[in-house]
Amino acid sequence: MARYYWTPSILILIFVLAMRYGMFAPSEASMPRAANSQEEQTLYTTIKGRYTQADIDANGGKTATQKYRRFQARHDFNPQSGDRLCPITRTKANPACTWVVDGHNYQFCCPPCIDEFVRQARQSSEPLPVPGDFIKK
Prior knowledge:
This protein is of the alpha+beta class and 137 residues long. The protein has five helices and two strands; from the N terminus they run H-H-H-H-E-E-H. The protein is elongated, with a radius of gyration of 19 Å.
């Protein structure tokens, strides 16, 4: 019976191919935390920083959890040139997951990223990067 050994060069080749074809993704620890229900109400329904009443109105006065109750996130860690990127994770954005912040319509990969982006907007007095800044080059 023949024995096969995994040489270091074979293992490296397998790892490189797995990385190239998206078999390994960043850990969930790199994803932002979702807001709890109390924080979410304050986050989405009060104005502060760059998050305005016009943004609240444009988003229907809802929270991300309310708007995307049935949303199923599928993170694509290998965006292609020209793809829109999530402003938080820089993964491929999902056009079905959008939010208006500072008067601009941004695309995100998942609702917890919306939470984080709104948090950042509320803490900022400076203009935010525009959605066109989040395109894979």
